[in-house]
Design goal:
By secondary structure, the protein is mostly helical. The protein has one domain. It has 6 helices and no strands. The chain is globular and about 45 Å long.
């Protein structure tokens, strides 16, 4: 079904976001293990695509530092308010994708 893969990856990302790890670890895991595998044009409804692209730009805003990857480096350099905004954006994209997936 249309958006099924995106919905699956976002569901898995949401599960990681509600784990007991600190917010940085949760965001890194959600992005590395799930979000990077989403192709917006194929996997997300139109209203979510630009939001997702902008979110992923935040996750790759900084160059890799030492042995941690680019996503980990970017998240570790974010201010606390930006971390919470990213989590909220993932939730919003998840809700929009779930709604579009279920309406099919």
């Amino acid at each position: 079904m249309k958006y099924g893969y995106g919905w699956e990856k976002l569901t898995n990302a949401m599960a990681l976001l509600v784990s007991s790890d600190d917010i940085r670890t949760r965001l890194i895991n959600a992005a590395v293990y799930n979000l990077i595998h989403i192709t917006p044009e194929r996997d997300l409804p139109e209203e979510s695509r630009l939001k997702f692209i902008k979110l992923m730009q935040k996750f790759t805003a900084f160059d890799q530092v030492r042995e941690e990857g680019q996503i980990a480096s970017s998240v570790n350099l974010m201010e606390e308010v930006n971390l919470n905004e990213c989590a909220q954006e993932i939730l919003e994209i998840y809700k929009e994708t779930a709604e579009a997936y279920i309406k099919q």
